[in-house]
Prior knowledge:
The protein is α/β, with parallel strands linked by helices and 226 residues long. The protein is built from eight helices and ten strands. It has helices spanning 21-30, 44-47, 54-61, 63-75, 102-107, 116-125, 164-176, 209-218, and strands spanning 2-8, 35-38, 41-42, 78-86, 94-98, 129-132, 150-155, 182-186, 198-202, 221-225. Strands 1, 2, 3, 4, 5, 6, 7, 8, 9 and 10 form a ten-stranded mixed β-sheet that branches. The protein starts with a strand and ends with a strand.
Amino acid sequence: MYKAEMHAHTSDTSPCARVPAADMVRAMAQARYDIVVVTDHFNNYVLEAFPGTAEERVERYLAGYRNACRAAKAEGIRVLLGAEVCLHHMGPEDYLLYGITEQFLYDHPQMYEYTQEQLYRECVKADVLLVQAHPCRSYCTPSDPRFLHGVEVINTNCRHDNGNEKALAWWKEQRGAGYCLIPTSGSDYHQTEDIGGGGIRLTRPVYDAAGLADVLRSGEYELREG
């Protein structure tokens, strides 16, 4: 089995994170993760704080992911690119993107200005999965299932009331209504204490972000909680 962390932030890019990418990767390796998806925050207050053009801002955004990739070479762990998007005009809800490439970010440098439907349509075009993060956290509301591929039913960040039981119940309710949303789990890593909580177990290795998205679509994985 292969263990994957699906929701991790770096202080290189995300201002709310407290651990640099290289230290995060070392900690993940020590916790016996095989894969970590860097899902730094992609929203207006992060991107627009970076100087320069839209392209230069994306380049700066990628620092956390790229620094994690460099550190991973010495740790025997695979780092994959993801993102956590908050839509500027649509409330506090966050969306995890799986299967993205750097080019996807350059093509959509202000996707935080999209509506949920617009973001979903662009993800469909690019074979990217759109997964709502912690949909039942105290300040969040489950989003329109018509424009989602999945939902994070387990979020183990210890500083929030994540409402995991409610999220799982909502996911089951949507399945009953005909929406076969992909369930995911992640630690929402920001600080050292967050490590080892969530993630998934895979039965086969994954070599890139597209491969991880394929595994999620196939259902050939198990959710972790602690």
